[in-house]
């Protein structure tokens, strides 16, 4: 796949996922907008507000002027405070206002993405106020696909409308989350040199991946089958996603959702550091 094809593929994945969100909202009863999601402190309305806010900021729109209440318990640091401001600003918006704004943002962002002449490896700025950073354009697109699709799944679980677990955006998300496993296992969980950790994931997007820690303590991932690993995790794709995105704690999973074989202490350390996003 060429760089141009990769950019187009990511744009298509983003489009399919964010348009799926608009379809979910089209016939949503008014009281469902306040239904809680697995994002701490965020309702269906809040998740949609966040998607609107980030895409608006990428378009260069000014952030709203607003003061946050002081009693929001899910605000843990300055980054979460930054993300919360445009969400809280929209908590008084009606359902038609929310859907109209989302649709307008999608139209504008789709046009901007379609007309962009940025190459995959060109360095661009991710606008986030004091938390802005530079990254390759392709990685920015990957991050937006992941964020929009993960929030699509937050909405689907809250509304009990499952779907798109094997979409193109789901595959982009899987690949990004897998990239983080070697660091989690080798560095954060402190798996010793020579450790072999296997993830056997079933469901709509099934995969088998092995993380190996070399003699220098560096982790690497491959798709080879390993007999007798130090730890093997067996779980379905949605459970993997919820754990990796900090949507559920391992101890809160229903019985049978996660099977762990091997070194229980090492497995516990890996699971304690498993969440890559929140």
Describe the structure.
- The structure is a single chain.
- This protein has two domains: 3-165, Four Helix Bundle (Hemerythrin (Met), subunit A); 180-272, Nonspecific Lipid-transfer Protein, Chain A, CATH 3.30.1050.10.
- The model has no long low-confidence stretch (mean pLDDT 95).
- It has helices spanning 3-26, 44-58, 78-89, 95-115, 137-159, 168-179, 181-188, 237-244, 264-272; strands at 123-126, 133-136, 196-202, 207-213, 219-222, 231-236, 258-262.
- It is built from nine helices and seven strands; from the N terminus they run ααααββαααββββαβα.
- A hairpin with a 4-residue loop joins β3 and β4.
- Strands 5-4-3-6-7 form a five-stranded mixed beta sheet. Strands 1-2 form a two-stranded antiparallel sheet.
- The longest helix has 24 residues, at 3-26.
- It is globular, with a radius of gyration of 20 Å.
- It is α+β, with helices and mostly antiparallel strands and 278 residues long.
Task: Please summarize what this structure is.
This protein is an alpha+beta fold and 278 residues long.
Q: Determine the CATH superfamily of the largest domain.
A: dinb family like domain
**What is the helix fraction of residues, given as a range?**
40-55%
CATH architecture of the largest domain: Up-down Bundle
Low-confidence stretches: none
Q: Which term fits the overall shape?
A: globular
Count of the domains: 2
Radius of gyration: 20 Å
**Order of strands across the main sheet:** 5-4-3-6-7
Fraction in beta strands: 5-15%
Q: Tally the helices: what do you get?
A: 9
Domain MDMPI C-terminal: 181-269
GO molecular function, one term: metal ion binding
Domain Mycothiol-dependent maleylpyruvate isomerase metal-binding: 15-156
InterPro entries: DinB/YfiT-like, Maleyloyr_isom, MDMPI_C-term_domain, MDMPI_metal-binding, SCP2_sterol-bd_dom_sf
């Amino acid at each position: 796949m060429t760089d141009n094809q990769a950019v187009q593929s990511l744009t298509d994945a983003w489009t399919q996922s964010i348009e799926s969100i608009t379809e979910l909202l089209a016939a949503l009863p008014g009281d469902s907008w306040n239904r809680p999601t697995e994002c701490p402190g965020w309702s269906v309305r809040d998740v949609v507000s966040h998607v609107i806010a980030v895409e608006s900021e990428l378009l260069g729109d000014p952030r709203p002027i607003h003061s946050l209440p002081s009693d929001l318990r899910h605000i843990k640091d300055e980054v979460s405070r930054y993300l919360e401001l445009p969400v809280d600003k929209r908590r008084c918006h009606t359902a038609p206002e929310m859907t109209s704004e989302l649709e307008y943002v999608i139209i504008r962002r789709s046009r901007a993405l379609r007309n962009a002449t940025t190459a995959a490896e060109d360095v661009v700025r991710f606008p986030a106020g004091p938390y802005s950073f530079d990254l390759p354009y392709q990685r920015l697109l990957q991050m937006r696909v992941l964020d929009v699709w993960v929030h699509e799944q937050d909405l689907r679980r809250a509304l009990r409308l499952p779907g798109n677990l094997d979409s193109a955006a789901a595959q982009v998300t899987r690949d990004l989350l897998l990239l983080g496993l070697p660091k989690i296992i080798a560095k954060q969980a402190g798996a010793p040199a020579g450790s072999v950790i296997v993830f056997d994931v079933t469901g709509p997007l099934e995969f088998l991946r092995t993380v190996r820690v070399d003699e220098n303590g560096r982790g690497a991932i491959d798709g080879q089958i390993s007999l007798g690993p130090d730890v093997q995790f067996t779980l379905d794709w949605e459970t993997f996603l919820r754990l990796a995105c900090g949507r559920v704690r391992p101890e809160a999973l229903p019985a049978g959702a996660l099977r762990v074989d091997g070194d229980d202490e090492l497995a516990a350390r890996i699971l304690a550091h498993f969440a890559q996003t929140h």
